[in-house]
Amino acid sequence: MNQVISLDVRSSLTADELTDVKNDVKEIDYVRILNQIISPDIRFHSVCLRPPENFDARFSCISRHYKYIFNGEGLDIEKMNEGAKKFLGQHDFRNVCKIDASKQITNFTRNIMSSKIERLPTREGFYIFDLKGSAFLWHQVRCMVAVLLLIGQGHEQPEIIDKLVNIEEFPSRPTYNMAHDIPLVLYDCEFPDDVKWICGDQIDRKVNHHLDMNGVWYELQVKSILADFMRDIVYKNCPVKFDRLVTNLGDGIGKTAQKYTPLNKRSRLDTAEVLNEKWRNKKARNQ
């Protein structure tokens, strides 16, 4: 949500004026202009007029904070939290991501600074997987959530995470479905202290910010209530007995199966080395 983009834009200042930070108050009001032309569910609130040399919105980021929202019904939250803590620190996450061979990645070690399950105070029965790390692999968070949901359902024990990040025990990833993407939010991004953000001080702009976001919030709240009405009507008039095994994927639907196969007994994908080599060979053939 609190994300950053980098843009090359024109300036109202002369070359001489640009050398003095005091002239920044005379700069174009980029925040106001951008907010006038984009959808109301996207809002700019701050600008960095003097980014460090070679600044990059992606690669200059020093930490990323994700939140994954899920319904706790039928889940052992305590066990999930126990599993979440096992992600803390530096681990090899090749078995908890989707490998993109075109990137030719050989280092899958990432540092997780915070990993925990918290109750969502604004919505009864819902929880958040709160995660912060320096960087993440492709679909790493969705794979982490998928494993935690398996633990929450009692299909796996928290110790499975210790095994998945041990490439001697799991040289390659077992086959499993990733958690759904909709509940996943990149909540915040952290940058070095020399990236200075300026929040507009115009009262009208601040009021408009709040009114716009209140409108978005209100519309989504009403839609959520209507969805509750709809579900209650369907459940009341069309009762059904769920007698099939459903693996929770964080989408409210899940995946049905006749029986559950533990991760350590499932078929494995190719190792990262094999996937990388296959991609190189394919590229060579197409040249």
TrEMBL record:
The keyword Isomerase applies. One of its GO terms (biological process) is tRNA pseudouridine synthesis. SUPFAM superfamilies: Pseudouridine synthase (SSF55120). It catalyses: uridine(38/39/40) in tRNA = pseudouridine(38/39/40) in tRNA. Pfam families: PseudoU_synth_1. GO terms for molecular function: RNA binding; tRNA pseudouridine(38-40) synthase activity. GO terms for cellular component: cytoplasm; nucleus. Its EC number is 5.4.99.12. Residues 84-192 form the Pseudouridine synthase I TruA alpha/beta domain. Keywords: Isomerase, tRNA processing. Belongs to the tRNA pseudouridine synthase TruA family. This is tRNA pseudouridine synthase. It comes from Candida boidinii (Yeast).
